[in-house]
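Reviewer comment 2.1 asked that we show a complete input and output for one of the modelled complexes. We chose the aspartic acid case, as it is the one discussed in the main text.
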Amino acid sequence: MTLYVHKYGGTSVGNLERIKQVADRIVQARQRGDRLVVVVSAMSGETNRLLALARGVQDPPDSRELDVLLATGEQVTIALLSMALQQRGCPACSYTGGQVPIVTDRAHTKARILDIDTGRIEADLAQGKVVVVAGFQGVTGDGDITTLGRGGSDTTAVALAAALKADECLIYTDVDGVYTTDPRVEPRARRLDRITFEEMLEMASLGSKVLQIRSVEFAGKYNVPLRVLSSFVEGPGTLITYEEESVEKPLISGIAFNRDEAKLTILGVPDRPGIASKILGPIAEANIEVDMIVQNVGEDGSTDFTFTVHRNEYRRALDILRRVCDQLGAREAAGDDTIVKVSLVGVGMRSHAGIAAKMFDALAREGINIQMISTSEIKISVVINEKYLELAVRSLHEAFHLDQSPA
Ligand code: ADP
Ligand code: ASP
Ligand code: MG
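Response of the prediction step:
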């Protein structure tokens, strides 16, 4: 008998009507003879609502307590879905992360899964039950509730699929697959039948929130067959595949963007060995992750140094940089939290020159100023002002003909 892990995101379980529709879909799958483990997110908006409640009391909230609070969102949906299944005559049982248990490290609000005990789930499956598991949450070795970072239900689903050696992990969401870019920004975006695991990893890490990056990493590591599809309409969705040969080979597969970054610059720093570590050392000590880094060519013995961080860390990073500026005798520390990063992704880039030039040309024609650039083997990213995001994505989509299926 085939074993599937289904995952339903927030919009798909956004109200009782939708939870009942999900239950109908699960009943149908079970009637086909599939064994099913179902992971659900909190109802749409619920995690944000809980976050706002916490911030209304303590800002920033204590991360251990925040996890206790955030995990309640998913606990509501597992119980409601289980009831809806039972109401339809389908035996079902719900589990929180701690009940499974899904054991994680102690990194509250961004915990990593260390181990999953599949004993109770397998016993339920053997009795013909549908097992409903809360996404996004786990438990530490000593019993504290943890959460896995925003979008973490994807990772719960993939990790369960790996641990149970499921035949496929199906991520049901509010779009019918992975598109060339976010269809909410570019309506002409095209659904991809397949995307390589490597490209999906880049897209996710560069800001495409359709899959949490850790879920893609997990799928790669444990070879979990993974598919993204709609919970509202039937269709094949998008298969994340490991076989590059079977994938259409366009130069560019997609455009990702990230609205969550901010840029910091220190101007007129003495240009001498060790300066980069003097600037970034204190940032790292404050546990702030740095993404892009650019150092200008020095002139007159001084240079400028720019880097990006998550927007949530902008204020903290700027305070640190101002201190560093004084210590180093630099001219000025400045910042901008109205930037976005836009990236082109494609394995075809490896073997083709000229992609960057074409990208910069398309942006120049729209009068969009590029503030930073970074490249790797299969991606090119630029930082631009946030007001140009939609224009940049659409003009790049058109310049690279992403709306057309490659011949
Ligand atoms: P869920 O609540 O089901 O986890 P998410 O909101 O996390 O759903 O992810 C689905 C959303 O991801 C879509 O509604 C879409 O706006 C966005 N998205 C961003 N990039 C892409 C892309 N390349 N393809 C499809 N969807 C994308
Ligand atoms: N409910 C969590 C969030 O909003 C986890 C998820 O939906 O995957 O981030
Ligand atoms: Mg999601």
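The mean pLDDT is 95. We note this here for comparison with the apo prediction described in Section 3.2.
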